[in-house]
Amino acid sequence: MRLVEAEPFAAGVFASIGGGSSFYDDSQRNTFALDAGGAVSLFALNRVTVTGRMWLNFWSDRLCPGLNSDQTGFRDVQRSDGISICRDVLDDLNNTGTPDQARVGRAVDLVDGGTDLSEVFERDNGARLMMGLTIEIAIQQKINAFLIFEGSPFGAERAAFTDVFNTTMLEDDPETYIQLGATYKF
Question: Count of alpha carbons within 13 Å of 42, Cβ hemisphere only?
Fold first, then answer.
């Protein structure tokens, strides 16, 4: 929502909410996120907009199924339904199997920063300050190109953004994200 506009500047506030769940398996993984903050834009040459943003990012992720009451298995799902790191942490918790101790330690450290294995089976909640810079260029009346650079200069890694819990991610959450793209207005 724009609050102030005095060419070539504008300022406003924004909020976004989102989430998702795994529909193709029974891993019980899901996520919820909320962002709220402010933005300041500078317009130049009727074609370029540079926007600086600062916001708080809140999240709540279910990375593994919950544990049953005696902590020997997953609640409401079969053992095979949990992703491999969840099964490894469960094996370590119950002193069964031969889990990769370094990987289990990394998972526990990402979720609670300590040694409580059962925390991996609870929701991972967190918040961090985010800052970003967006450059938009009007190519034609209906086509824009953009570059977004954003990150968390003082925040912690988000476990869901690491390869420990999501094999498509990098080993560590880089806490800096870059997007390049185009929009078409119709």
Answer: 6
**In contact, 185 and 142? CB cutoff 8 Å:** yes
Residues 127 and 119: their CA atoms lie apart, in Å, by 17
**DSSP for 10-32, written as a single string:** EEEEEEEEEEEE--SSS---EEE
Residue 114 CA, chain-centre distance (Å), reads: 21
> In whole angstroms, what is the distance from residue 105 CA to residue 108 CA?
5
The per-residue pLDDT for range 43-62, each reduced to its tens digit, is: 998 899 999 999 999 999 99
In this predicted model, what pLDDT tens digit does every residue of 126-185 receive, in sequence order?
A: 999 999 999 999 999 999 999 999 999 887 889 999 999 998 999 999 999 999 999 999
d(CA 88, CA 75): 16
> Any bridge partners for residue 139, and if so which?
none
Cis peptide before 174 (omega within 30 of 0): no
